[in-house]
Amino acid sequence: MPGSLSRSRYVPDKGLTTRMVTTMFLIGLLYVVFVGALLVLLRGSWPTVLVIAGGLFVAQFWFSDRIAASSMGAREVTPEQAPELHGAVDRICALADMPKPRVAIADIDVPNAFAVGRSERTALVCVTTGLLRRLEPQELEGVLAHELSHVAHRDVAVMTVASFLGVLAGIMTRIAVYSGLGRNSRDGNAAIVALLIPLVSAIVYMISFLLTRLLSRYRELSADRAAALLTGRPSALASALTKVTGEMARIPSRDLRTAEPFNAFWFAPAFSSRESLGRLLSSHPTLEERLDRLGTIAAQLGRP
Predict the structure, then answer these.
(1) What is the pTM (predicted TM-score) of this model?
(2) Which residues of the chain fall below pLDDT 70?
(3) Strand 74-76 relative to strand 113-116: parallel, antiparallel, unpaired?
(4) Which is catalytic among the residues 120, 147, 247, 260?
(5) Which residues have C-beta within 8 Å of that of residue 233, sequence separation ≥ 6?
(6) Measuring CA to CA, which residue among 293, 297, 289, 298 is closest to residue 269?
(7) Terminal Cα distance for the chain, rounded
(8) Binding-site sequence positions for Zn(2+)
(9) How much is the pLDDT for 136?
(10) Distances 62 to 25, 92, 102, 226 between C-alpha atoms, Å
(11) Is 260 marked active-site?
C-alpha cells in the first residue's frame, strides 16, 4: 500500500492506512471463522465448501473490478473520442506523478464518477455523461483528483477484497439451502444445520457490512483531502459535491435504484429515497461534513 503513495504526490494518510490494515485483518479473521463454521456444519461436504470459497475468492479479486465497471455501464474511450476528459485526466496524473489509468464513460444521466482496479496498472476511472454535462472543467478535475486518490491510496483494492466476505456469505447460504448440502445426515441434525447456515451467514454479512461501511466513509474524506491539496482548489471540489448532490434529487428514482447498489464506488451516493436506511448506514459521509472539511482545508491553504 505505501509503495504506491511513495511514487505519487498525493498526501499520505496514516489514518487511512491503519484503517485499511485493521479492516483487512478483521475481515480475514472473519473469513476464516466463516469457512471454519461451514466446515463444521457441513462435515460431509467440506471439499465443496473449500472449492467454492476458494474459487469465489479468486474470482472476486481478479474480476470484480471488471464486473463492477461493466455493471455500471462503463465504456472505455480513447483520447480521440473524449479529448476533454482525457486532457483532464492527463493533467491530474501529471500533478500527482502517477501512471495514467484507463478512461471510461458511462452513458447514464446520474451525475457521478468512480474508479476501480487492483493496482495502478489495472486502474480504470469512469465518469457518467450526466456528470460531464453538469460540471465546469475545474469541478471535473476536482472529481477526477478525488477518484485517482483512491487508486493511489490502494483503497479501491482493499474495498474490493473487504466486500467479498458479505458476497460469499450470501452465495454460500443460497448454495446450502437450494442444493441440500448436509442433508445426507440421518441423525436428525439436518434441520438444525439448515437453520444455522443462514444464521451464521447473516451474522457474517452484518459484521463485514459494518466494517466496510466504516472504512468507506473515512476513505471518502481522505480522498477529498488528498484531491483538495493536490489541486490546490478545495472550492472546486466543494462546488462539484454540492452540484452533484443537488442534481441527484432530480434524477428519477428508477435510475437511482439502479445505481444505488454501487454506492461504495461512486463519488457521491445515489439514494432512491431520502428516508432510505442507507442514509443511516451510508457508504459516504454527509455532504455537510465533507464541505466542512474542505472549508477547513481552504482556510489552511489561504494562510501565509
Answers:
(1) 0.81
(2) 1-7, 42-46, 49, 163-191, 193-195, 197, 271-280, 303-304
(3) unpaired
(4) 147
(5) 138, 141, 142
(6) 289
(7) 33
(8) 146, 150, 220
(9) 95
(10) 20, 27, 17, 27
(11) no
